[in-house]
Amino acid sequence: MKTAAHDVPPIPIVDQPLAVSARVGTEWIVDAYGCSETALRDLEIIGGICHDVVAELKLQVVGEPQRHAFPGHGGVTAMYLLSESHLACHTYPEHRLATFNLYCCSDRPAWGWQQQLASRLNASEVVVRKVVRGTRSADQGPVADQQDAVIQDVVIQNVQRDQG
Fold first, then answer.
1. CB 76: neighbour CB atoms within 10 A?
2. pLDDT score, position 107
3. Contact in structure between 67 and 47 (CB atoms under 8 Å)
4. Residue 28 Rama label (left phi>0; alpha psi -120 to 50; beta)
5. What is the pLDDT of residues 46-95, one digit of tens each?
6. Crossing angle for the helix pair 43-56 and 113-121, nearest 10 degrees?
7. pLDDT in tens, 134-155
8. How far is the C-alpha of 88 from the C-alpha of 99, rounded, in Å?
9. CB atoms < 10 A from the CB of 126, how many?
């Protein structure tokens, strides 16, 4: 007998403690400030950065990357579905800001976000947060919000631009 999709039986509740740690991936959350407004509107520049992240970290793209430049003074959005998870970028020329999110379910080395974004987007400051996903404190239960998440290796680097 077939059941409708909305007639899914309830998931049984198992009376076992949750695992203290179930590391399921690493996420890099990157904010680049003081960027060139022109670079933030350039689909080729943003696409080139995303391509290099994927190539240099030996990630596997699933399907075709999605990239879109918004009309007028709008920014760029790029999304890469990866066999390891995803890479996303959103740019905000009006705020001179680019945001990147790379999530990998397998270990990868850090990418040179500071140097690359300073060079390609003329970023004056790049903030990189590395978040280990799936971890929680044994005493506090599941993570309630981002402030409770395990955040490692927060790197803030001010990039000095030539004043000449």
1. 24
2. 84
3. yes
4. beta
5. 999 999 999 999 999 999 999 999 999 999 999 999 999 999 999 999 99
6. 160
7. 877 443 444 444 443 444 444 4
8. 8
9. 26
pLDDT at 151: 44
Q: Which of 35-39, 66-70, 107-111, 134-138 comes out lowest in average pLDDT?
A: 134-138
Helix (H) or strand (E) holding 132: strand 125-135
Nearest alpha carbon to residue 31 among 102, 135, 104, 79: 102
CA distance 154 to 35: 20
Buried b (16+ CB within 10 A) or exposed e, 48-60: ebbeebbeebebe
Cα 81–Cα 84–Cα 90 angle in degrees, nearest 5: 40
- CA 154/CA 58 separation, integer angstroms: 23
**Residues listed for the chain:** 164
Rounded Cα–Cα distance for residues 139 and 146 (Å): 17
Interstrand relation of 125-135 and 151-158 (parallel, antiparallel or unpaired) = antiparallel
How many C-beta neighbours within 10 Å does residue 26 have? 22
Name the residue type at position 131: V
